[in-house]
Amino acid sequence: MLSIIIPTLNEEKYLPLLLESIKKQNFNDYEIIVADAGSTDKTLEIAREHGCITIPGGLPAKGKNKGAGIARGNLLFFLDADVILPENFFEESLNEFKKRNLKIASFCLLPLKKNKSHYLVFNLFYNFPIVLLEKFLPHAATGILIDEEIFKKISGFDEDITLAEDHNLAREAKKLGDYGILKSSKIFISERRFEKDGWLKTALRYLFCELHMIFVGPLKSDIVKYKYGHYSKNKKDKI
Question: With a threshold of 0.85, does the pTM exceed it?
Answer without folding.
Answer: yes
